Hints:
Elements: H1 2-35, E1 39-48, E2 54-65, E3 69-71, H2 73-83, H3 86-101, E4 113-117, H4 120-125, H5 128-139, E5 146-151, H6 152-156, H7 160-172, E6 175-181, H8 188-193, E7 198-201, H9 203-206, H10 213-228, E8 232-236, H11 241-250, E9 254-256, E10 264-265, H12 266-278
Helix pairs in contact: 1-2, 3-5, 5-7
The structure holds ligand C2E and calcium ion (3 copies).
Amino acid sequence: AKDAGRNTYRMFDEAMNHQVQEALRLRSNFQRGLAGGEFVLHYQPLLDLQTRRVVGAEALVRWHDPERGMLSPGHFIPVAESSGMIVPLGAWVLREACRQAARWPVQGGQPLVVAVNISAIQFKRGNLEQTVADALSESGLAPDRLEIELTESTLLHQTDEVLATLQRLREFGVRLSIDDFGTGYSSLAYLKKLAVNKLKIDQSFVRDLTSDPEDSAIVRAIVDMAHSLNLVTIAEGVENTEVLAVLRSFGCDEGQGYYFARPMPEAEFRRYLEAAEGV
Ligand code: C2E
Ligand code: CA
Ligand code: CA
Ligand code: CA
């Protein structure tokens, strides 16, 4: 029994060791990757559900690691957050997204919005206002074309500092959106106080919209309450025409998902825009 215990311990130890090594490797590769242009942004279109027009795109980061190929953010964002590397990475994402969006053609007479994800750590420790101001002035992007996606957990502890940062971002004219809405704890009245523009309904509620009556009730309630507070609603994870039809019947304003388009490299997104504009 004693040996078995020791073996279990050794196996556990090796697994831990592997995890630690993996984290350390990621961490050191990060610096190199950021300096060496290994990160790229892909863009996923955001559509107006009534007109079917493209109204913007969400920037989603990818890491082209020369040893391991294309890594998705689920693999490296948590490490970037725990190591603090999310601050320089997030600053790069903001600058790159603004720089690229500045050259997108006007779509149906409307300038396109670019949505950028901001993690809680970046929000609290990243000198975000300065980074946003720099990204806007460097790129010449109109502030109302930048939409910042925050999660409910970022806003959960509304310290004076959090409120001041949000206020200043709004004064710049930047838009604020709550990502993964419905998975956290915010009340809508509280979001109104924060001067948020948009709620992005989490894909976990959208996916089974046509088969799960509870999800359907939740989505409908979010849309109705958001509208009564003059907030725009967007549904993420729209994968088929049935879900789209329900969202439209609920009056949801915008949608994003594989049904419309997957995230794509920027050059491809610009071709997608040309094709969409031609319709
Ligand atoms: P998110 O912000 O909720 O982004 C939406 C994710 O859902 C993206 O995954 C997107 O590719 C995926 N998605 C879009 N449409 C569909 C659909 O119809 N069906 C399904 N099943 N999935 C869909 P991705 O690109 O792997 O990003 C994962 C997460 O990584 C993001 O979730 C976001 O939290 C984080 N992330 C991505 N880029 C950044 C970034 O630049 N900064 C920060 N802080 N986080 C980022
Ligand atoms: Ca997002
Ligand atoms: Ca989301
Ligand atoms: Ca999510």
